[in-house]
Amino acid sequence: MTTGYMTHPIFLEHDTGAGHPERAARLRAVAERIASSGLAGELDQVQAEPVDRNVVRGVHAEHVVERAARLAASGGGVLDGGDTVVSRASFDAALTAVGAAVGAVDRVLDGEWQNAFVACRPPGHHAEADRSMGFCLFNNAALAAVHALARPEIERVAVVDWDVHHGNGTQHIFEDSAEVFYASLHQWPWYPGTGAATERGRGDGEGATLNLPMASGSGDDTYLRAVEDRLLPSLEAFDPQLVVISAGFDAHVRDPLSGTLVTEDFFARTTELLTSLAGGRVVSLLEGGYDLDGLAASVEAHVGALVRGAGAGTLASPA
Ligand SMILES: [Zn+2]
Question: Does the model's pTM come out above 0.85?
Answer without folding.
Answer: yes
